[in-house]
Amino acid sequence: MFQILSWTIRYLFIGMIYYFIFSIIRLIYLDIQSIHNRGRQSQAEVYLKLINRKDRLDFDIREFYDLGTVTTIGRNKSNDIQIMDKYISSNHTKIIVDEGAYFLEDVGSVNGTYLNSERIEDVVELKNGDRIGLGQVEFLFVKEVD
């Protein structure tokens, strides 16, 4: 009896390991595919890439957002990027381009805007690879250089 139980537990454990490996490979594949699909959709050099896993959020959100001259982010429909997160203000933050440089500014949000895990109080310049945190969402600022 003990031997049957031992073999059953062993095979269940092996099955869980294979399932875990399959899940990791699937996530890598989906991430590579989303990057490949983004390249077809837009030729923008500057964009925000979602870092969070979409399936863990209780609202719809896109993987990539292209940035314009002035890009506003918040829950309100008038924003360029509308995110229906309950922790994001109606008008939360904006990203502004000035002479080729991109700047992040919090526009009086309740829960604040975070740059690389530090709450911003003033306008700050964005650099390639910066992490922007808003509510439950975190974006990677990407500025592709030729």
From TrEMBL:
InterPro entries: Cell_Proc_Reg/RNA_Proc, FHA_dom, SMAD_FHA_dom_sf. The keyword Signal does not apply. CDD domains: FHA. Pfam families: FHA. Residues 71-120 form the FHA domain. This is FHA domain-containing protein. Gene3D superfamilies: 2.60.200.20. It comes from Alkaliphilus hydrothermalis. Keywords: Membrane, Transmembrane, Transmembrane helix. The chain crosses the membrane at residues 12-30.
